[in-house]
Write a structure and sequence with these properties.
Layout: E1 2-7, E2 10-13, E3 18-26, E4 28-39, E5 46-52, E6 57-59, E7 67-72, E8 77-82, E9 91-101, E10 107-111, E11 115-120
Parallel strand pairs: 2-11
Antiparallel strand pairs: 1-3, 3-8, 4-5, 4-9, 5-6, 7-8, 9-10, 9-11
């Protein structure tokens, strides 16, 4: 019913920047919150940043001051601007959205397929 498509991952040197995008499509009535999680090899998936429909934001301590999350409600798209990247930021980054669907007006949790971010030292 709802699809999340991520883009923008890749390989970058330490200190560089990348911008991730995630576009939601389908039976969307409203999107309550959108966020980014990441999972490094051998580690659990962790929250990176989240933004609510009211533009409240929350960041993991490890990315505060370096990453910025934003959203374009008209495009149902969330962005993650990542600056001053470090090798420890290397992970698969997943988009997540809490979506109120049009048919039932219930809220469901959706995930993107993930995009690889690799930061070389």
């Amino acid at each position: 019913q709802v699809q999340l498509v991520e883009s923008g991952g890749g390989l970058v040197q330490a200190g560089g920047s990348l911008r991730l995008s995630c576009a939601a499509s389908g039976s969307i009535f409203s999107i309550k919150a959108m966020g980014w999680f990441r999972q490094a090899p051998g580690k659990q998936r962790e929250l990176v940043a989240v933004i609510t429909i009211g533009d409240s934001t929350k960041y993991a301590d490890s990315v505060k001051g370096r990453f910025t999350i934003s959203r374009d409600n008209a495009k149902n798209t969330v962005y993650l601007q990542m600056n001053s990247l470090k090798p420890e930021d290397t992970a698969v980054y997943y988009c997540n959205a809490d979506v109120q669907i049009t048919t039932t007006r219930l809220i469901y949790d959706y995930w993107g397929q993930g995009t690889q971010v690799t930061v070389s030292s």
